[in-house]
Automatic annotation (TrEMBL):
PROSITE patterns: ADH_SHORT. Belongs to the short-chain dehydrogenases/reductases (SDR) family. InterPro entries: NAD(P)-bd_dom_sf (IPR036291), Sc_DH/Rdtase_CS (IPR020904), SDR_fam (IPR002347). It comes from Actinomadura napierensis. This is Glucose 1-dehydrogenase. Keywords: Oxidoreductase.
Length: 261
C-alpha cells in the first residue's frame, strides 16, 4: 500500500534526475526553495553574491544527502548574469528548472527615488530573470520540459510600505511569466510566479524591528501569522514537478490569505 502511494506521489512530484538553478538560494525564500527542490530529488545550483552564505546553504543541502553546488555572481549587471549562467551549468549541466528568487527592496520614498535605485532594482529583480529565461528557456523547449519560477510580491498588484521601483519590478515579473508561458508552454516549459505576503526573512529585517508593524501585517492575513520561508517549499516543488504541467502563466499567491482579506 505504502509502495503504491509513494510511486503515485513520485510520478506527480519527484524531481529525481532534474537539475535546478535557484538564484537567491543562499537566504530566505530562495534557500528554502533550494532545499525543497533538492530534497524532492533535483541537483541544485544556488546563485548569489556572498560566498560564506552560499557555502553554508550548500553544506545544509548536502547534509540532507542532496546534490548541490554554488556559483558566486552579482546579478545586478548583465555581465554578472552571463557569468552566473556560465557557472550554473558547470556542476550538473543545463537546468530543467530555474527559480528566480534573488531580489532587493531598497524602499526610498517616491520623491527621493532616483535613477540609481530604479536601475539597481530593475537589474536584479526583473532584468536578471528575463536574461536567464532567454538563456535557458529555448533549451528547455527543445528538450520538451522546463520550469521557470519567479518570486513576485503583493506589490505587483497593490501599493503599500513604499512600493516605489520594487512594486514596478515585481509587476514586470508577473508579466514576464506570462510572456514566457506564451512562448514556450506548448513545448513543455511552464512559467509562473509565486506571490508571497509578508515573510520573515533578512530582506525586511528593518520592518521587523517594529513589532507593532509586524503584528499589524500578521493581522492582515487570514491565517493570523506572517509567512516563513518554508511556506514556499510545497508550492515550489509543485510548480517544478510534472504535477503542474497544465499550470502556466499564473501568479500563485502563497500569502496566508493576505491578498483576499
Ligand atoms: N520577504 C518577503 O516578505 C518577501 C515578500 C515578497 C516578495 N519577496 C521576494 O522573495 C525573494 C526572496 O526574498 P527573501 O525575503 O528571501 O530575501 P533575502 O533573504 O534577502 O534573500 C535575497 C537573496 O537574493 C540574493 N541577491 C540579492 N541581490 C543579489 C545580486 N545582486 N546578485 C545575486 N544575488 C543577489 C541574496 O544573496 P546576496 O546578498 O549574497 O547576493 C539572497 O540570497 C525576493 O525576490 C523578494 O523580492 C520577499
Amino acid at each position: 500500500m505504502i509502495d503504491r502511494t509513494s510511486s503515485y506521489l513520485a510520478g506527480l512530484f519527484s524531481l529525481e534526475g532534474r537539475t535546478a538553478v535557484v538564484t537567491g538560494g543562499s537566504s530566505g525564500i530562495g534557500r528554502a526553495i533550494a532545499l525543497a527542490l533538492a530534497r524532492a530529488g533535483a541537483s541544485v545550483v544556488v546563485v548569489a553574491r556572498r560566498e560564506r552564505e552560499l557555502a553554508d546553504a550548500v553544506a545544509d543541502l548536502r547534509s540532507h544527502g542532496c546534490r548541490a553546488a554554488w556559483v558566486g555572481a552579482d546579478l545586478g549587471s548583465r555581465q554578472g548574469v552571463a557569468e552566473a549562467a556560465r557557472g550554473a551549468v558547470e556542476p550538473f549541466g543545463e537546468p530543467d528548472i530555474v527559480v528566480s528568487a534573488a531580489g532587493i527592496n531598497l524602499r526610498p520614498p517616491m520623491q527621493e527615488l532616483g535613477e540609481e535605485v530604479w536601475d539597481a532594482t530593475m537589474a536584479v529583480n526583473l532584468d536578471a530573470p528575463f536574461l536567464l529565461g532567454q538563456r535557458f528557456g529555448p533549451g528547455m523547449a527543445e528538450r520538451g520540459f522546463g520550469r521557470l519560477i519567479h518570486i513576485a510580491s503583493q506589490q505587483a498588484f497593490r501599493a503599500f510600505v513604499t512600493s516605489g521601483a520594487y512594486g514596478v519590478s515585481k509587476a514586470g515579473l508577473v508579466a514576464l511569466a506570462r510572456s514566457q508561458a506564451e512562448a514556450w508552454s506548448a513545448r513543455g516549459v511552464t512559467a509562473n510566479a509565486l506571490v508571497p505576503g509578508f515573510v520573515l526573512t533578512p530582506l525586511n529585517a528593518r520592518l521587523q524591528d517594529d513589532p507593532a508593524r509586524v503584528e499589524e501585517l500578521a493581522a492582515r492575513t487570514m491565517t493570523g501569522r506572517n509567512g516563513v520561508a518554508e511556506d514556499f517549499a510545497g508550492a515550489a516543488v509543485f510548480l517544478s514537478s510534472p504535477a503542474s504541467s497544465y499550470v502556466t502563466g499564473q501568479a500563485i499567491f502563497v500569502d496566508g490569505g493576505f491578498s483576499v482579506h
